[in-house]
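Holo prediction. Input below; ligand is adenosine-5'-diphosphate.
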Amino acid sequence: MSRISKAFFTALWFMLLTLPVMGIKLNLMENRVDWRLDRVLYLGVAAFFLSMLWTWLFSRKKRNLPLIKAPAFIKIDFYGLSANRAVRRGFFASLILGLIAVPLLASFYQTNIMISAMLYIMLALGLNIVVGLAGQLVLGYVAFYAVGAYAYGLLHQYFGFGFWICLPVGGILAALFGLGLGFPVLRLRGDYLAIVTLGFGEIARLAMLNWTSLTGGPRGISDIPRPGFFGIPLNINEATIYIYYLALIAVCLTVVVVLRLKNSRVGLALQAVREDEIASEAMGIDITRAKLSAFALGSCWAGFAGVIFAAKTTFINPASFTFMESAMILSMVVLGGMGSISGVIIAAVILIMAPEYLRAFSEYRMLIFGAIMVLMMIFRPQGLVSGEKRDYQVSALARKEADAQ
Amino acid sequence: MTPALEVRDLSKNFGGLRALNDVDLRVDKGEIVALIGPNGAGKTTFFNCVTGIYQPSSGEIYLYNPDKTLLNGKKPNVITALGMARTFQNIRLFGEMTALENVMIGRHCRTSSGILGAIFRDKKTREEERATIDDSYALLEFVKLHELWNEKAKNLAYGAQRRLEIARALATEPAMLLLDEPAAGMNPQETIELKELARDIRDSRGVSILLIEHDMGLVMSLSDRIYVMEYGGCIASGTPEEIRANPAVIKAYLGESDA
Ligand SMILES: Nc1ncnc2c1ncn2[C@@H]1O[C@H](COP(=O)(O)OP(=O)(O)O)[C@@H](O)[C@H]1O
Ligand SMILES: [Mg+2]
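Structure of the complex:
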C-alpha cells in the first residue's frame, strides 16, 4: 500500500515539476496560453509505474533477491556447462566459425560495424589491464589509441612506411607514451589519477589539433593505405573483408594474451596491487614496476588498435579521439565487470552494436546510455560478470583423487 | 648467539608526536620475542618502520640473513625479499582472491617469470607456476587451511584469516617473521593452536619471530624474551619471569591494561 501511495506522490510531484515545461504553451499568434494537461497526465501515469518498478527493484535488492529470475523451464546450469570442457570447446569453436563466416554473409556496412566492434574489444581489453586488473583509473586512454593511429598516418606520410612495419612501431610508441605518463602519476591514486590522465588525453587531442605543421590539424591525415595483401591490389570490398580478418586475428590474440597475463605471476601481482598496495608491497611486490608494466601493456594494445583503425578508415583526424571515446571504453570495462575478460567483451559488443542497430533511438542514445550506467551502479556494481574463479590444478589434490580411485 | 634483527636508537616523529623514542631491540636467531605495551605505545609504528612502510626519523635497522644488511631507506618489497615478512594488526588480505592465490602472491618475490613468459608460457614458466601452486598449497596445509584453499579470503572466519596471513608471509621465505597481534579475535582453542603454530614455524623452519600481543597468557608461555613499550619508549626487557616481577611493567601495563 505504501508503495502505491509513494508512487502516487512521486507522480504528482513530477507532474507539478514538469507542468511549466510540458503543460503550458504560449500561442504567440493568438496571444493566449494553451494548456496541454493531457501530456502532463501521461507523464504522471508513466512516472507512477516507473516509481512502482523502481521501489520494487530496490526492495528486491534489499532482500538480496536476484532482479531477474529465469523461468523454471529454461533452467540451464550455466556454471556447470561452462565448466564442462567439451561444451566450452564447442561453444568457442562455433563462435569462431560464426565470426569467420560474417563477412561472407553480411553486408559491407555490417562488416564495417563488426570491425569497429572488434577494435573496441581490443581497446576495452587493453584498458582492462590497467583499470580492471591493476586498479588504476585512467580516463585519457583514447590518447594511446591516437598515438597508434597517428604513428601509422605520419610514418606513412613522411617516410612511406607500410602497415606491417607500423603495427609494431605504433604499439611500441604507445607503450612508451604509457610509460611516460606512468612515471609522473605513480604516486597518484583514484580521483587524482583520473583527473591527471583525463588532462593527458585532452593535451594529446589539443596537440593533434593545433600542431598543424606536423599533424595537419583538424584536417587530419588522409590517404592512409589499407594493409597490403602480398602486393595484390584489393578493391574496397575485398580490403574491408581483409581488414575484418586481420581485426579478428588481432582480437583473438588479444584475448589469449590478456587471459594468460591475468592468470600469470605478473597478473596476480597486478590484482594484488588493485586490492591493497601496502599489503602488496609488504609481500614483496614492486608496485612501481607492476603499475608501469600495466600502463605499458595497456597503452601498447591501444596503439595496435590505433594502427588498425587508421588502416580501416584511411583517414584520421582529432575528432575520432575525444573524451567520449575514453568514457565509452571505460564504460565497457566497468559494465563488463572489472577484470573479467568475457564480461568486458560482452559489454563492448552491447555498447557498440546497440546504437548501430537502434538508430530509431539515436536521439536518446546518450540518455539511455546514462540510464544504463546509473542502473548498473545501483543494482550490479560488480559488473555483468564477476566472481569468476580460476581452476587451479593442485598436485596434492590430484594425487589424493588418484589414490581414492 | 647470532642476531636475526637488530634495531638501534629507532625514533619516529609524526609532526609533533614522538611515536617512537630511541628504541633498541634485538632478536636472536631462532628466538621468539614478544613486544608488549598498552594501546598507542608505538608497537605497530615500530613494525612499520622496520618493514619500510614508514621511514624512521633516526636510528638503524639491521637484518642478518645471513649477512648484516642495513634496512634504512629500503622499500618494503626489497626488505621482504631480503628475508623479513609480516602480518597486519588490521588484517590486510586480498579479499577478492582465494586463499591459495593469497599465498601465491607471497611467492612473488621468490619466483621470476615475467610478461613474456606469461604470454608464451614456455616450459620454465609452466614449471615455475606448477611449483608455486604446490608450494602454496603445502603452506595452506601447514596452517591447516587446505580444505578452504579455493574460498575467497574475505569469506573466511576471523581466525582463519589470521592464519592465512601467516601462511602468506611464510611464502616469502622469511628468516624473520613479524606478527602484529596474531591472536586478536581468536577464541581460546584457536589461541592454543596459534601457539603451537608459532613454535612449529620456529622449530621446523628456523624462522625467528617477533610478535606484538595483548594476550598475557600467550606471551608468557610462548616467548623467550619480552620487550615492554610505553609512550614510544622501551621501558623494560627480559625473560617472562623478569618481566612479571618488574615493578615498572606492572605499573605501566599489567596493572591497567590486562585488568
Ligand atoms: N600514520 C600516522 N600518523 C600520525 N600518527 C600516527 C600514525 N601512525 C601511528 N600514529 C600514532 O602513533 C602512536 C602509536 O601508535 P601505534 O604504533 O599504532 O600503537 P600500538 O600499535 O602500540 O597500539 C599513536 O599515538 C598513533 O596515533
Ligand atoms: Mg598496534
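The domain at 92-173 of chain B is CATH 3.40.50.300 (Rossmann fold). That is the main takeaway for now.
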